[in-house]
What we know:
Layout: E1 5-10, H1 12-26, E2 41-48, E3 51-59, E4 68-74, H2 82-93, E5 97-101, H3 105-114, E6 116-127, E7 138-142, E8 160-164, E9 167-175, E10 182-189, H4 198-212, E11 216-222, H5 226-234, E12 237-247
Parallel strand pairs: 4-5, 10-11
Antiparallel strand pairs: 1-2, 2-3, 3-4, 5-12, 6-11, 6-12, 7-8, 8-9, 9-10
Amino acid sequence: xxxxxxxxxxxxxxxxxxxxxxxxxxxxxxxxxxxxxxxxxxxxxxxxxxxxxxxxxxxxxxxxxxxxxxxxxxxxxxxxxxxxxxxxxxxxxxxxxxxxxxxxxxxxxxxxxxxxxxxxxxxxxxxxxxxxxxxxxxxxxxxxxxxxxxxxxxxxxxxxxxxxxxxxxxxxxxxxxxxxxxxxxxxxxxxxxxxxxxxxxxxxxxxxxxxxxxxxxxxxxxxxxxxxxxxxxxxxxxxxxxxxxxxxxxxx
Length: 252
């Protein structure tokens, strides 16, 4: 019996119930979660003989409009149709790039089926264990309103600081625009105090503050940033995935 499998343009509201299933199954921080509410995505319903069995989402990477598939979900009873549905999504959306987290097995497998030139650019971290780091004479505390800090080059000034001998030598915090219950840790240490354990000490205490705020800590860093990778690992975070990007070969 012939089946009709197709991707149909839809509104964001149309995919929300399916996306709730996707987030529950993923059970991890979704790096581009906020793209939807910021209006940076287009949505598609995936249909089998007119029945909705999944969704796909695309956003922009190289064009002002949409060129990258970054979310794809098919409910488990119909997952055997995922490959054909993905192929139709690529045609309907005219996307030529696929970006995914390697800890999301369905889209990762489709990335390797359809794309080439696959590369990783960021590492994703999840909480792994409770560290017990202690740095003599240093304390982590909330940043005071209007408190002056050193010039930052990479991360924003955070809600918490590391104070040493009356000086702020590091700041950090956690971002809340990710899917519940996850939050994203960040920090920056003053240049002359780096590689002395203050970053890991701050991440350890930010994890505690994050849990107290009702969130689960997660983090990410550039693949080449060996110092940040070591800092996160020392504070009890573990690598849980990588951001992968591949190009779909164009056919004439």
